[in-house]
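ingest -> fold -> write
write: protein_1
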Amino acid sequence: MAKYLVTLSLGPVQSLIGAARRTRDLWCGSWLLNEAAKAAAKVINDQHKGALIFPCPDSETVTTMPISPTSCVPKSNWVAMMRRGN
């Protein structure tokens, strides 16, 4: 059975930066993409145990993943997982 690397990138980041008028706008856009990536990582980790590659699935922050601005999950707008398929 073949293995596939699946990456999920949330964005577009560049248009969020271009549309920002204040530093607060940059922060909010970054925070929003990060929260969406954390939610996707949590769903992948919950439904496909052992498939999540990034953020690190061995980290206790992924398994307890609070969706809040103070959580310490790596700040990123992408998620990677390994899937088996035909």
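write: protein_2
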Amino acid sequence: MKATGAGGFATPALRLQSAALEIELRLPDAAIADAAAVASLTQPTGPGTLSQTLGQAYLTLGRAYQARGNSPEAREAFRTALTHLESAVGPDHPSTREARELVAQTPAGP
């Protein structure tokens, strides 16, 4: 784990919970920062390695971009989430289904 400032430590799950709350509080920039931090700190262990944590990070990142009105960035994050989640937890997992629906619903352009 990495320090998050002021000597504190946060797990990826805690950062993602913070990002979800920030989206609800209409603080998309803070949510983007938290979700992007989880995505950058949660590196795959090798080529082709996909993970549930990265999938959740990109799903949250997509929601934050969507809340900010950035549809192209949101759609790309949802697509990345879908790739990770399909492999890590399967096509029928609720998060995978949500990512698939969000990819379909989110416009590719402005």
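write: annotation protein_2
The domain at 8-105 is CATH 1.25.40.10 (Serine Threonine Protein Phosphatase 5, Tetratricopeptide repeat).
The first helix runs from residue 12 to 24.
pipeline exit 0
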